[in-house]
Amino acid sequence: MDCPVCGEEILTTAKKCKHCGEWLDKENTSKVTNESNTEEKVFYQDDNVLVTQSRFTVGSETYAMRNISSVTNFEIKKSKIFPFLVMFIGFMLIFVGEEFYVGGIMALVGFIWLLIVMRNDFAVKISTNAGEPNTLISKNKKYIQEVVDAVNEAIIYRG
Residue ranges of the alpha helices (H) in 34-140? Predict the structure, then answer.
């Protein structure tokens, strides 16, 4: 079975996509009961994130929605100079030096490093009276945008 959101293959019994984090059974994520046994409206929930009208939880950190003034997605750009340098040295060894195989391996390692390891990260950045922490970091831009949208909905819902 393929995920209806990201198209990746998932188990037919899956309740949530392991690739994009989308809940496949929306009925189970609509309400959460807090300590005072009052129901909170849930805007987003997965294994690591919970966004309700009164709180935003990421892992073990919980932020009160009343203290969050804004939320944005933020791209954390990584420097790509080292993979390009490894590729350049590799090409120099291929074309100028006698170390053809070593140069080829270096160029290949630099290229793979650039494509896979050096992908930019994306973060959920919230503004609170304590500052602007990056509360959630992921390479999946769509996932970060879903969390940002949910926090924005919760802020608007609170009024």
Answer: 81-95, 100-112
pTM confidence score: 0.61
The answer to whether 53 and 65 are in contact (CB under 8 A) is yes
CA–CA distance, 24 with 17 (Å, rounded to integer): 7
Q: Which domains does the chain have, with CATH numbers?
A: 26-77+120-158 (2.30.29), 81-117 (no CATH)
The residue behind tokens 């970060």 is 144
pLDDT band at 5 (very low <50, low <70, confident <90, very high): low
Three-state secondary structure call for residue 70: strand
- pLDDT, one tens digit per residue, over 87-103 is 888 888 888 877 777 88
Which letter, b or e, does each residue of 39-57 get, where b requires 16 or more Cβ atoms within 10 Å of its Cβ?
ebebbbbbeebbbbbbbbe
Angle, alpha carbons 147-153-154 (nearest 5°): 90
Amino acid (one-letter) located at 26: K
**CA angle at 46 for the pair 41 and 52, rounded to the nearest 5°:** 20
